Amino acid sequence: MAPTNESTASGQVCRTGLMSRIDFGSDGFRQALLELAKEDFRREDVHYVILAGGLISARAIKDKQMRLKRAIRVTKAQAKARLKELKDDKSKKAKEEIARTEAMLTELEEQLASISDGNVVENLADDLAKRMPHFVNAKGEPVKLYIVAS
User: Which of 10, 53, 120, 145 has the smallest C-beta neighbourhood within 10 Å, fewest atoms?
Assistant: First the structure.
């Protein structure tokens, strides 16, 4: 993260804030880097900010997605086994447990479906947008943020 000075054709100085590798989605997400950059870039009165690569950690997100899918599948298998055990039990308590377990199975199916479709990316984008600071110059005016995908 570093502010730089560039001269424009008219001879004016254009101050740019540069940073990279925040790795959103990983355990190493650098939220503190964003907060520090926000303060440094404000103090240095940058005109715009460039985040040059390393926005998200695709590998970490895929790993989390796989672990969650696996956990849901294991829980589903356990719930189905429990339903099989309760099948012949006609007590009120067993009927209540069957109803709860069937509801849980429905919820697990919905969770698995939501992980497999585009909602994961949408939720990820929303979460990142909430965590991304609003960069401002020394006057408190917003500055543009340019993101370069790697």
Answer: 10
